[in-house]
Design brief:
single chain; Rossmann fold; eight-stranded mixed beta sheet
Length: about 230
């Protein structure tokens, strides 16, 4: 846990919410909810680096473990977990809106954003396709457009229903989607979108252990602010 974050737990809802909350010294009226990929958790280096960058810009950040990860510390989600994980994301959005509004807080969020790496991003996009007015923007990191080496298995069925502004961040060496493949998929989305390629990066976007791309979180922050109209 980084020194500027605190544990966040809400077990009054089902699925419960568990993660880490980054509260800026001078918060803006914005909240970012960050989730992980299928093999990761809320402590993933990419999520921690992004949480630091966004919270340093005044944005309150909740990086949380999806419901399947709360039940199983290791391994990918099972086939029946997706709907429950989306319910957990919806609970997190509601909890953050409620927390920021508690007591007539003057800094109540005017905007909440969902962000996720790989599986977490895909579930966030599916949730927003189901509920277009849920959040103000989406940040999708390493979107898993198809399984590696199986480009025919496109995960695009919900994209025509996605009406939320979305920033895609994709490594040029990501086996889950090439840049040209994503460019074609983005044409299916009626909302405003932007694709940020990360040259030479794979599915982890260069955040594996201590080998991190120090400048990337700030670039993502800047690009998201431009797209979401902050």
């Amino acid at each position: 846990m980084s020194p500027d974050s605190s544990e966040f737990v809400n077990e009054t809802v089902d699925p419960p919410i568990r993660g880490f909350l980054h509260t800026p010294d001078t918060p803006t009226a914005e909240v970012l909810i960050l989730t992980h990929g299928a093999g990761g958790n809320a402590q993933a280096p990419l999520l921690r680096a992004l949480a630091d960058a966004f919270s340093n810009a005044g944005i309150t950040v909740l990086r949380c473990n999806l419901p399947y990860r709360q039940l199983r510390p290791f391994g990918p989600p099972g086939p029946g977990d997706a709907a429950r994980d989306r319910a957990g994301l919806k609970n997190a959005v509601a909890a953050m809106a409620s927390a920021m509004n508690a007591g007539g807080n003057a800094s109540a969020p005017s905007r909440i954003y969902l962000a996720g790496h790989s599986y977490g991003g895909r579930q966030s996009s599916m949730l927003c396709a189901e509920e277009p007015d849920l959040v103000a923007g989406l940040l999708l990191l390493s979107y898993p457009l198809h399984p590696p080496r199986k480009p025919e298995q496109q995960r695009t069925q919900h994209l025509p229903d996605l009406h939320t502004r979305t920033l895609f961040v994709q490594g040029t060496r990501d086996p889950f989607a090439s840049i040209p493949e994503l460019q074609q998929a983005l044409k299916m989305i009626p909302a405003k979108t932007k694709l940020l390629p990360v040259e030479g990066a794979g599915h982890d976007l260069g955040f594996k252990g201590k080998a991190t791309r120090a400048e990337l979180p700030q670039i993502i922050l800047s690009e998201s602010q431009q797209l979401f109209g902050r």
